[in-house]
Amino acid sequence: MSWAREVVYCGPVGVAKTAQIVYWCHSMCRQYPGLRFLWTRKERVRMTQAVLKTFRKVLLDPMFWLLHRYGESPPEELVEAARKQLHHDNGYLFEGPSDATREMYTYRRPRGYYGPPSEIVVAGLGDDTRLYSSEYWGGFVNESKECLLEEWEHLRRALRNDGPGTVHPLIGDTNPGPPRHWIPERAKTGRLNLVEVDWADNPWIIRTQEGAAYKKDIRELYTGHRLRRNYYGEWCSAEGQVYPEWEDSKHLVRGSLEQDEASGDWSLILTKGLGATLDKVVRVPLKRFFAGQDWGWTNPGSQQVWAFDDKNRVFLVRQHHHSEKPLDWWAEVAEENHKLFGLQPIACDPSSPGNIEAFNDRLGVPRGRSTARIAIKGENSIEAGIDHVRDRLMDAEDGYPRLFVLENSLAHQPDPILVQRNVPTCMQDEIPAYVYEEVDSDKPDTRRDQPMKKNDHGMDAMRYAMAWAWRRDPKEPDGGPLYPPGSWGDMLSSHKKRRRRMPI
To answer: pLDDT by residue (tens digit) across 234-276?
Structure first.
């Protein structure tokens, strides 16, 4: 393990990047009592089946160690002896909370040492209190490709705990991504050491039949840019990316929603994006809310609440992205969002008019009054919808784009089914892999006008919303009453709204 200040281990999937790092952290905690490590990832829930599962395997599975010398068939008595020794030495670390709820691994104090024990703290990147209110000697960012450069740099603030030497290492592991990602760019400046890991670094791959079969499966599973990234370990662009204008550092903002007690108006209080920093917040008054809805069951459905500001920019402030939810559940979500924001309108996937009617029934819209409907058919021209999104992603005259996504806009925990499938759990996670479909495998540069229909449900909901928002005046309704008489919006608008903050 390098002792450079910033290190990212990068390579194909399954080459033991994480295993090398977690064992090094474990060894340091045993060698230097009182050492404190921070382990983090963009979403804490994804650590359970990734880094924490690997940590348990490294410390308790004898085959992880015996493969180096004996291959896949070590003597049984040696396996049993190694298992007992590993559980004797390391088993206490895994007592207590399950991996899903664990917040810390606490090491035993060595004999004759009476100071604080070594600790490994586990937290998501969004847990600012645990990240920045404590001191750590070193940090590990699992799948650091998901992390923003600003988040990586802010983690340095927490690395100041006493330990060996004067270096406080910040370590990451990741599979490759786009070549202009901040990780390879930072490596070019010399501020970060990018360590390449290959298949040969994992003895399970090179010394077992199961490992060889896994490597072959990876070779056959992926094509195009995913093959180059996940098998060959190359930093490369997605081929035919639909929204190459998207940049996490530019289009993702961080903050919370606040409603004024007297007027009932909503504002975004930003701590990142549009010039905001941790020391300087930016208030963005919001003028009108609307939504996009894509249906789903096995594949996720997506409901997104968007809002205009007074400069005709749009912000995704709340989203639900979930699989295996019935229509009643989505109608309840729409009702809740409408109560909060007075949605006008909800642009829906037009393929299911019965679902749209069910939404309007739930929202109290009388049948037959088409001008008063809240849920409407969305524009289904894919090409036009993509153009509307792309137009807002580009910078305007003030140097900022006209489409932003609130980083913590997901209104619920990530769908565990989607996490298990290792597919996007929110709209913004779909964008990097949203690509045009190939026409002919022999001519990879020739593409259809239609994007690939895979992990695109958040993309569809955004497209319906942006097609509706095209050239709309954010300050004016579409004519007629904003809410139909007797509807939830009509009743709620007559009540004084209390001031509230929404940590969505």
So the answer is: 998 777 789 988 888 889 999 999 999 889 999 999 998 888 8
Is-contact 167 3, C-beta < 8 A?
yes
Question: Is residue 297 within 8 Å of residue 349, measured between CB atoms?
Answer: no
Residues of the chain with CATH 3.40.50.300: 6-230
b vs e for 14-26, b when ≥16 Cβ sit within 10 Å of the residue's Cβ?
bbbbbbbbbbbbb
Alpha-carbon separation of residue 90 from 83, 98, 442 (angstroms):
10, 16, 53
Paired tokens of 62:
């004898």
Phi and psi at residue 327, to the nearest 5°:
-60, -40
Residue 121's nearest CA partner among 249, 107, 357 is: 107
Number of DSSP helices (H) and strands (E) in the chain, helices first: 18, 18
Topology of domain 6-230, CATH: Rossmann fold (3.40.50)
Secondary-structure class of domain 248-252+287-496 per CATH: alpha beta
Q: How far is the C-alpha of 290 from the C-alpha of 473, rounded, in Å?
A: 12
Phi-psi region of 199 (alpha: psi -120 to 50; beta: other; left: phi over 0): alpha
What separation, in Å, do the N-terminal and C-terminal C-alpha atoms of the chain show? 39
pLDDT level of residue 487 (50, 70, 90 thresholds): low
- 3-state DSSP assignment of residue 173: strand
Long-range CB pairs of 178-187 (<8 Å, 24+ gap) are 178/235, 178/236, 178/237, 178/238, 178/432, 179/235, 179/236, 179/237, 180/237, 181/145, 181/235, 182/148, 182/149, 182/152, 182/249, 183/8, 183/10, 183/144, 183/145, 184/235, 186/6, 186/149, 187/8
CATH 3.30.420.280 in the chain is located at 248-252+287-496
Contact criterion met (CB below 8 Å) for 452 and 432: no
Q: What is this structure's pTM? A: 0.61
Question: What's the rounded Cα separation, in Å, for the pair 440 and 447?
Answer: 8
Q: Characterize the bridge pairing of strands 314-322 and 346-348.
A: unpaired
70 burial via Cβ count (<10 Å: 0-12, 13-18, 19+): middle
pLDDT digits over 183-223, tens only?
A: 998 998 889 999 999 998 888 888 888 889 999 999 998 87
CA distance 192 to 180: 15
Angle at 33 between CA 31 and CA 34, to 5 degrees: 140
Give the whole-angstrom CA distance, residue 460 versus residue 351.
12
CA distance 30 to 118: 7
